[in-house]
Design a protein that fits this description.
Elements: E1 10-15, H1 19-29, E2 36-40, H2 46-51, H3 53-70, H4 83-93, H5 100-108, E3 111-115, E4 118-120, E5 125-128, E6 131-141, E7 145-147, H6 163-167, E8 175-179, H7 183-194, E9 198-202, H8 213-225, E10 229-231, E11 236-241, E12 257-261, E13 264-268, E14 270-273, E15 277-279, E16 309-311, H9 322-340, E17 357-360, E18 365-370, H10 373-378, E19 383-389, H11 393-398, E20 404-411, E21 416-424, H12 431-439, H13 444-447, H14 460-474
Parallel strand pairs: 1-2, 1-6, 2-3, 6-16, 8-9, 8-14, 9-10
Antiparallel strand pairs: 4-5, 5-6, 7-15, 11-12, 12-13, 17-18, 18-21, 19-20, 20-21
C-alpha cells in the first residue's frame, strides 16, 4: 500500500465518536501537545449514550426499585409505573438525544470533532465528505457494531423494531414479540413487561447461552414471573404485517404483526428483533489498506497493517460491551502515546488475560466475571466449583426475597478464582470485588483474610471461601 503524499492534519484520527472512540482519542493525546480528530456520523457519545447502556438502564431501574419496594414490609401497596415519568427520566439521561455536552467535553480536552461518515483511503488517510484527514501517528477504528437481522421470511418487510426503537420508544406497545435470547432481548422483555406490555419472547435456543446454566434458569423464571410468555428453542418461521409504516424510531411501525412460531401464529402490535450484532465495517474502506476484516492483537493493533492502524470496541471483534471496549480504547491510546513519545508498544500491558466482566440487568440480575465452568474445562483447567445461596444477613436485610446464587470457579492447580457468577437482586454492585480477585489472581488462602463488613452482602465472599475450605477438608 502506498503512503499518503499529503501532510499530516492530526497526530491521531479516531473513526467513531462513541465512548470507545472518545477514550482512544483522549488517552492518545493526554499530557502532550498531540492533536486528535474524532469523526462521528451521528451523535458524539455513540450507541451507549443514546440507544443502549444509558437509556436501557434508565428504563430498568424504576422496575427494580418497584420490585424492591414490593418485597419490603411497611411500604404499602405499589402502584403501576408511571410510563410518562419513566420515559421522561430516560430522556434526561440521553440529554434528549442532543450531543452538545459530549462535543463540549471533547473540545475541552483538545479533540477536534469532525462530523460525517469516515472512510479509509490509504495509509494513515481518512476521507470525510470532501475533506481528507491524514494522521501523523495512528488511525483508530471505533465504529462499533450494527444489528444482525436473521433471515426470516417477511421480517424485513414488516419493519420490525431494533434495539434503538426499544430504548428510545415513545409509546409502549400493547403487545410485543421479542425475538432473541441474549442480553438485549432479556433486558428489553424486562422493561417492556414492567411498563405494561404483554410480552412474548421467542429464542432459537436457550437464554443467555454464554452464562452459567443456573443464571439462565433464574432469568427465565424471573421473566415468566413477570408475565412474559417465554418460548425456548423456538422456530420463528414467517412474519406478516398489516400496513407497515416507517413511523420513526420508537413508534409502532404500522398495523398488527402476525408471526408464525413452530407452526402457530402469534399476533402482536409490534415485533422487536434482538438477535445479536456484527462489527460495523461496511464501507469503511478496509480494502484501501489491504484488509477484508479487522483482527487485533492484545494491544489493539490491527493485523496486516504496518503499525499505524488500531481498533477497539465492538469493531475489534473481541467483546461487545461498552466497558470492555473502553478498556481496549484506553490501551490503544496509551500504546499510541507511548510510541509517539519514542517508546514501545510492549511498554503497555495488553488485554490478553484480562477477564471479561458483564451484567444482565434483569430481575434477578446476573453479574459475571471471568470464565464459566464449561469454558474452564474446555481450556484444560482442573476445576473446583462452589455454588452457594446468596442469602446472608446483608442480603436478607435488604429485601425479603433475597434468594440467589453465587458460583465460583477455581483453578485448583493455581488456587485462584478464574470465574464468578452472581445471580440475585442488586448483585451488579458486588461484581467488582470478584473482578479484583480474578484479575489480580488473589490466592484463595489470602482471600480468606479479606474480611467482609457485617451485615453487608459482601459476606458472601467469606461464605464462598469457607465452602471451598469445607470441600477440601472433605476430600
Amino acid at each position: 500500500m502506498a503512503a499518503s503524499a499529503s501532510e499530516p492534519t492530526h497526530d491521531v484520527i479516531v473513526i467513531g465518536g462513541g465512548p470507545v472512540g472518545e477514550n482512544a482519542a483522549q488517552y492518545a493525546i493526554q499530557g502532550s501537545d498531540r492533536t486528535a480528530a474524532l469523526v462521528e456520523a451521528e451523535l458524539v457519545g455513540g450507541e451507549c449514550s443514546y440507544w443502549a447502556c444509558m437509556p436501557s438502564k434508565a428504563l430498568l431501574v424504576p422496575a427494580a426499585v418497584r420490585s424492591l419496594a414490593q418485597h419490603m414490609p411497611g411500604l404499602g401497596e405499589q402502584a403501576p409505573l408511571d410510563v410518562d415519568a419513566v420515559l421522561a427520566r430516560r430522556d434526561a439521561f440521553t440529554s434528549g438525544w442532543d450531543d452538545a455536552g459530549q462535543v463540549a467535553w471533547a473540545e475541552g480536552v483538545g479533540i477536534e470533532v469532525v462530523r460525517g461518515r469516515a472512510r479509509l483511503a490509504g495509509e494513515r488517510t481518512v476521507v470525510v465528505g470532501d475533506r481528507t484527514l491524514v494522521a501523523r501517528h495512528a488511525v483508530v477504528l471505533a465504529t462499533g457494531s450494527v444489528p444482525a437481522e436473521p433471515p426470516i421470511d417477511g421480517l424485513a418487510d414488516a419493519l420490525p423494531w431494533g434495539s434503538r426503537d426499544a430504548t428510545a420508544m415513545h409509546e409502549v406497545p400493547g403487545s410485543i414479540l421479542v425475538v432473541g435470547g441474549g442480553v438485549v432481548a432479556c433486558e428489553a422483555a424486562t422493561w417492556l413487561a414492567a411498563l405494561g406490555a404483554h410480552v412474548t419472547l421467542a429464542a432459537r435456543g436457550g437464554l443467555l447461552a454464554r452464562l452459567e446454566p443456573e443464571a439462565a434458569a433464574a432469568v427465565e423464571q424471573g421473566l415468566r414471573d413477570a408475565g412474559v410468555d417465554v418460548r425456548l428453542h423456538a422456530d420463528v418461521q414467517r412474519v406478516r404485517r398489516e400496513a407497515p409504516a416507517a413511523t420513526g424510531t420508537g413508534h409502532v411501525h404500522g398495523g398488527a404483526v402476525t408471526t408464525t412460531i413452530d407452526g402457530v401464529d402469534v399476533t402482536t402490535d409490534e415485533i422487536l428483533v434482538a438477535t445479536g450484532r456484527r462489527p460495523a465495517t461496511g464501507d469503511l474502506g478496509l480494502e484501501t489498506v489491504g484488509l477484508d476484516a479487522v483482527a487485533v492483537d492484545g494491544r489493539q493493533r490491527v493485523a496486516g497493517v504496518d503499525g499505524w492502524l488500531y481498533a477497539a470496541g465492538d469493531v475489534a471483534g473481541r467483546w461487545q460491551l461498552t466497558h470492555m471496549g473502553k478498556h481496549e480504547a484506553r490501551i490503544a491510546g496509551e500504546v499510541i502515546g507511548r510510541i509517539a513519545d519514542g517508546g514501545h508498544a510492549h511498554d503497555v500491558v495488553g488485554v490478553d488475560e484480562d477477564p471479561l466482566t458483564q451484567v444482565v440487568f434483569t430481575d434477578p440480575e446476573v453479574a459475571a466475571v471471568g470464565i464459566t465452568q464449561a469454558e474452564a474445562e474446555d481450556a484444560g483447567i482442573r476445576v473446583e466449583r462452589v455454588a452457594i445461596d446468596l442469602a446472608v444477613a446483608g442480603t436478607s436485610l435488604a429485601r425479603d426475597d433475597a434468594g440467589g446464587t453465587v458460583i465460583a470457579i477455581v483453578d485448583a492447580d493455581r488456587d485462584v478464582l478464574v470465574g464468578v457468577t452472581l445471580v440475585g437482586h442488586g448483585v451488579a454492585e458486588l461484581l467488582h470485588a470478584a473482578t479484583v480477585a480474578v484479575a489480580a489472581r488473589v490466592p484463595i488462602p489470602r482471600l480468606w483474610h479479606a474480611v467482609p463488613a457485617y451485615p453487608t452482602a459482601s459476606e458472601i465472599w467469606l461464605r464462598v471461601v469457607e465452602d471451598l475450605r469445607r470441600q477440601r477438608r472433605a476430600d
